[in-house]
Design a protein that fits this description.
This protein is an alpha/beta fold. The protein has two domains: about 90 residues, no CATH class; about 210 residues, von Willebrand factor, type A domain (Rossmann fold, 3-Layer(aba) Sandwich), CATH 3.40.50. Helices cover about 40% and strands about 25% of the residues. The chain has eleven helices and eleven strands. A six-stranded mixed β-sheet has the order 5-4-3-6-7-10, sandwiched between helices. Strands 1-2-11 form a three-stranded antiparallel β-sheet. Strands 8-9 form a two-stranded antiparallel ribbon. A hairpin with a 6-residue loop joins strand 8 and strand 9. The radius of gyration is 39 Å and the shape is elongated. The two termini are about 45 Å apart. About 30% of the residues are buried.
Length: about 325
């Protein structure tokens, strides 16, 4: 509630001496002297009748209070907020090669954990356009740049290993993501490249692709996921006698090329991160979120409408009622 004329509340200071004078006057000696009170003592009055003698004064005080509030002009405001955001365009570039099936992020594999942490990252970036590129032997845009983060989350959920997942073409992935950002007019353009392997396929070298992206004003953050050395990996085995398929866990050697990812990031003034477990991957996304903040400016416009009439109406009603009762059934002797 907003009051247009707050200084009218100073009138409440008048009520304080008015109440004080009323009770001082009430304690004075009676205006009528009677020689014998024996007859009056036989008249038994209910206590409620005794207390009712103060009721008109209570009505008058409450009525005046409501009128003072009406004079202060209570108003109800309707606010509108105008938001101006200088958003960031981000292409999430996600490795879906078969090595992402490794179970060193137990109990789930690397791809599952990468998808969940990516969804958590994009959840609060409502002013940014974000897209998704997936890659292995080849790369393609799974979701173009969009402000609809619910749709993007749906595409991330549906991302899985495909028939071309037996190799890793990092250079092709960077070129595909950069191609989606090259026409962007955003203040900042970012590629987040998440992989667990080394570049082993494609005609375009990753550093060449990174330099081209840097020329377009694109910054690349690279994230290497997975533990070093031997890691558990599910292998499908076929029984030669029954033909039945089963999954066995075997150890494979992790082949992440950290130096390559470091060079890609530094070429574009980005940064390289290393995630050995789920907690570290979440922390990395949190760091990137703080580094790439959207600038948001807001202006609030408020329009007010008067709401004094109910206070005025009931204040007048109480004053009229007080006058009526004081001159009729609750009339007092002078």
């Amino acid at each position: 509630m907003h009051f247009a004329n707050k200084w009218f509340f100073l009138l409440f200071l008048v009520l304080i001496p008015m109440i004080w004078l009323y009770f001082i006057r009430d304690k004075k000696k009676p205006a009528i002297k009677i020689s014998d009170l024996s007859i009056l003592k036989k008249v038994i009055q209910p206590k409620v009748i005794i207390y009712l003698r103060h009721f008109p004064f209570f009505l008058r005080t409450l009525g005046i209070s409501l009128l003072i509030i009406a004079l202060a002009r209570p108003q109800k405001g309707t606010s509108e907020e105008e938001i101006t955001a200088q958003g960031i365009d981000i292409m999430i570039t996600l490795d879906i090669s078969v090595s992402m099936k490794a179970l060193d992020f137990q109990p789930k594999n690397r791809l599952f954990v990468a998808k969940e942490t990516t969804k958590e990252f994009i959840k609060n970036r409502r002013s940014d356009r974000i897209g998704l590129v997936v890659f292995a032997k080849r790369a393609y845009t799974k979701c173009p740049l969009t402000l609809d983060l619910n749709i993007l989350s749906g595409f991330i959920d549906k991302t899985d290993f495909e028939e071309f997942s037996d190799a890793t073409a990092i250079g092709t992935a960077i070129a595909t993501a950069a191609n989606r950002l090259k026409e962007s007019s955003a203040k900042s353009k970012v590629i987040i490249l998440l992989t667990d392997g080394a570049n082993n396929y494609g005609e375009l070298a990753p550093i060449t692709a990174a330099k081209a992206a840097g020329e377009l004003g694109i910054k690349i953050y690279t994230i290497g996921v997975g533990k070093q050395g031997n890691v558990p990996y599910p292998v499908e085995v076929i029984n030669p006698f029954t033909g039945q398929k089963s999954v066995q866990i075997q150890n494979i050697q992790s082949d992440l090329d950290e130096q390559l990812l470091l060079d890609i990031a530094s070429t574009t003034q980005g940064k390289f991160f290393r995630a050995h477990n789920t907690e570290e991957l979440k922390e990395i996304y949190s760091i990137i979120d703080k580094m790439e903040k959207t600038e948001i400016k807001s202006k609030i416009y408020t329009s007010y409408s008067d709401r004094f009439f109910p206070w005025l109406f009931w204040g007048c009603i109480l004053i009229i009622l007080e006058y009526f009762l004081s001159h009729t059934i609750l009339r007092r002797l002078p």
